[in-house]
Amino acid sequence: MTRFSILMILTTLVTAPAFAQKTVEAQEIIDQINQGKAVYYEKVTVRGTLDLTDLDNKEKSGSNWGFFSSNDTYESEVEQPITFIHCVFQDDVLAYHHNDRSDDTFVANFAGNAIFQDCVFEQASEFKYSEFSEEAVFQSCVFQEDANFKYAEFAEAPNFGQVVFESDANFKYAEFPENTNFAEAIFKSEANFKYADFPGGAVFENTIFVGLANFKYSKFSTPLNMNNVAFNGSEDFKYTEVDGEDFTGYLLHRK
Fold first, then answer.
1. In the chain, fewer beta carbons within 10 Å around the N or the C end?
2. What residues contact 186, with CB distance under 8 A and at least 6 apart?
3. pLDDT confidence tier of residue 71, bands split at 50, 70 and 90
4. Distances from the Cα of 106 to the Cαs of 45, 48, 51, 131, in angstroms?
5. pLDDT tens digit string along 115-165?
6. Do residues 136 and 159 lie in contact, with contact meaning Cβ atoms separated by under 8 Å?
């Protein structure tokens, strides 16, 4: 049996939320954040949409005027650390929301640590445009639906090690700092890193890409660890650069 087959079996097993014991309403978590309290949950199931974009400290941060109307951007800030370990999120987790009727956009930023470890996201996960000012940890999580980190900015190296993306993972235009970690992650659908920027290197050691691995226009700097990476689907490294060098040339020089 190949290493890929073994990992696929194991990740299917860990997807089952056997560790969750207590159920917590999403609104209870929002209330704690609005009260300025640090959030810590372990081995719970979160029921209801966890909407972080409509906190009490929400402020309008910008406006764009069109021909017939304006569309505004509102930002909320999670000021205290949030920690979720061995938790299951039954509904959407929203740090980004666009209202199609009003054409307004709502974003949540994280001033403290944002720790999601060994968690299962059963529905959509939206972190588009979010700014993570401190630690961002998603280690060993399972995203069963789309995970959207498009345009996300990380002040410290995020940890996506051993994460399983069952559906599309969107990191297009994301900005990553030094030592960003995707080691042993499994992307079962499209992994979109188009235009992503890795100015301080990254780790993709033992990472498995089952669907399209789209790194078109991405920019890497060394050290770049892609040891034992597996591309089992198609890949696109057109215009990808490493230290300003074409990605293909970088690979040839490594041999």
1. C
2. 7, 8, 11, 163, 164, 165, 207, 208, 210
3. confident
4. 25, 18, 10, 13
5. 999 999 999 999 999 999 999 999 999 999 999 999 999 999 999 999 999
6. yes
